[in-house]
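Session log. Operator J.P. requested a structure for one protein chain; no other inputs attached. Running the standard single-chain path with token output.
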Amino acid sequence: MSDPGNYPGSTDRSLGQLFASATAEMSALVHDEIALAKAEVRQDVKRGVMGSAAFIVTAGLLIFAIPMLSFAAAYGIHNLGLGLAWSFLIVGGAYILLGILLALFGYAKFKKVKPPEKSIASAKQTAAVLQGVKPHPRPVATARAIEQAQGSTLADKAIENRPVTDKALPVTRSSA
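Structure written below.
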């Protein structure tokens, strides 16, 4: 027959199996947290790229298109009977208005960029769970223990002559 402790649902697993299982689950949890953070950041990066692209398009319009189209539009308006100065002013104002509208579009996209809220909430929840876990107690090294480790003292001789009593508590095993 096979050992019942080798099955994942078994309650009679060894300490090593429990530790390996806990380590694997912690590793999976961390990997899932990282994947969630990457997904959220990727979404916000896309929004940021769209906002940046709007600003780049705005800059391109203002730098390359304004001089050429301004002259063409101004002379076209001038042919309609308006003065040349007023024609250039109208065309310049139109391009500035277009630039402002694209800048507002880019700003609106940047405002939608948020911190990775799901990742932060999940990490806080994980941290809260891990804070409740108590580590294995470690023995406290006292001055007497250090002296005993370094060499014998008069107190050591008195301790050696005392009868040894076992103060271990009986361990009960639950079958549940």
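Operator note: The mean pLDDT is 77.
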